[in-house]
Write a structure and sequence with these properties.
Strand content: 15-25%
Number of domains: 1
Number of strands: 7
Largest sheet: 7 strands, mixed
CATH topology: Rossmann fold
Shape: globular
Strand order of the largest sheet: 3-2-1-4-5-7-6
CATH architecture: 3-Layer(aba) Sandwich
Distance between the termini: 59 Å
Order of helices and strands: HHHHHEHEHHEEHEHHHHEE
C-alpha cells in the first residue's frame, strides 16, 4: 500500500461526528483533511459553489481595498493556497500580506502557486506580480494562537476558516488582539440558515455534492462530505455577528448570500 493510500484509508476510518464534536482532536482531523485536498482545493471551491465563490471573494477584496490604508499589514487566516492573500496584495497598494494556515500542504501549494505567477510575470515582462511576490509570505500556524504582536495588523481576512476552528470565539479574540485601533476583519464563510426548510435543503445539497465530489476526485467522500456536518454544528450569520460584537468589534457590514447559507461580515476594532 502506498503512503497516499494509507493516509486515505486512515482518514476514511475516522468517526466524523466524534472529531467535529471534540475540540481536542478536531484540528488534527481538519489539518489532515486539508493536507489531502490541497492540490485540488481551488478547483473544488469553484465547482462546489457553482462558480459563485469567485464573485464572493471579489466582493470581499473590494471592501478590503476601500477600507485598508496603502502599505497596510494584512493577515490572511486559513489562507489555503493563497488566492485571498494574493488578491489582498493586489487590492491594497504596498500592502504587506501574510498568509497563515494550519495545513503544511496548503502552505506548500500557496508557495508554489506564487512562484508560478512570478515566473509568468517575468516571462511576460510585467513587474506587478513580482512586486506582489515580494510583499507576500506564507507560514504554518494556529488561528487560536496567532504568532503576531498585539495591535500590529491593519486587516484580517478569513475565507471559510472560522467554521473549521475548534474554538471560534478564541480565534476571534486573537483577531481582536492583533488588530490595530481602526483595523478590520473581513469574513467569508458558510453558515447555518435561519429558515428551517432552506436549512434542510441547503445541508442536503452540501452533503450529497460533497460526498460525490470527494469520491470522484479522491475516492474519499469524507474530505468534502464533512462540510455539511460542520455547518450543522456551526452558527447562523446573526450569531457570528454577535460573536464579533462580544469580542469588542463593531460589525459594519453583514451581507447574506444564498438566503443566509453564506455571508460576508466586515467588523472594525474601535479607535482608542
Amino acid at each position: 500500500m502506498s503512503r497516499k493510500e494509507g493516509r486515505r484509508g486512515a482518514l476514511s476510518e475516522l468517526d466524523l461526528d466524534e472529531h467535529l464534536a471534540n475540540p481536542g482532536i478536531r484540528q488534527r482531523f481538519v489539518t489532515r483533511m486539508f493536507d489531502e485536498i490541497a492540490p485540488k482545493y481551488d478547483r473544488f471551491t469553484r465547482v462546489f459553489s457553482l462558480g459563485m465563490d469567485t464573485a464572493w471573494k471579489r466582493e470581499l477584496l473590494a471592501d478590503l481595498a476601500e477600507r485598508v490604508p496603502r502599505g497596510g499589514a494584512v493577515l490572511d487566516l486559513a489562507c489555503g493556497t493563497g488566492d485571498l492573500a494574493v488578491g489582498a496584495a493586489r487590492a491594497v497598494a504596498g500592502a504587506r500580506v501574510t498568509g497563515l494556515d494550519a495545513s503544511p500542504r496548503m502552505i506548500a501549494e500557496a508557495g508554489e502557486r506564487l512562484a508560478r505567477q512570478r515566473m509568468a510575470a517575468q516571462s511576460s515582462g510585467s513587474g506587478a506580480p513580482g512586486d506582489v511576490h515580494r510583499r507576500l509570505q506564507f507560514t504554518v500556524g494556529d488561528m487560536m494562537h496567532l504568532p503576531v504582536p498585539d495591535v500590529s495588523i491593519d486587516a484580517v481576512t478569513i475565507g471559510y476558516g472560522l467554521r473549521n476552528v475548534p474554538e471560534p470565539t478564541r480565534a476571534i479574540a486573537e483577531i481582536a488582539r492583533v488588530l490595530r485601533p481602526g483595523g478590520r476583519v473581513f469574513v467569508l464563510d458558510f453558515y447555518l440558515p435561519e429558515r428551517r426548510v432552506w436549512r434542510v435543503l441547503f445541508l442536503w445539497y452540501l452533503r450529497a455534492a460533497g460526498n460525490l465530489v470527494g469520491w470522484l476526485w479522491h475516492r474519499e467522500p469524507v474530505v468534502y462530505g464533512y462540510i455539511a456536518p460542520s455547518i450543522a454544528r456551526y452558527v447562523t450569520a446573526d450569531e457570528l455577528a454577535r460573536m464579533l460584537a462580544r469580542a469588542g468589534l463593531v460589525v459594519e457590514r453583514d451581507r447574506r448570500k444564498l438566503f443566509g447559507g453564506i455571508a460576508l461580515h466586515t467588523a472594525r476594532r474601535p479607535a482608542e
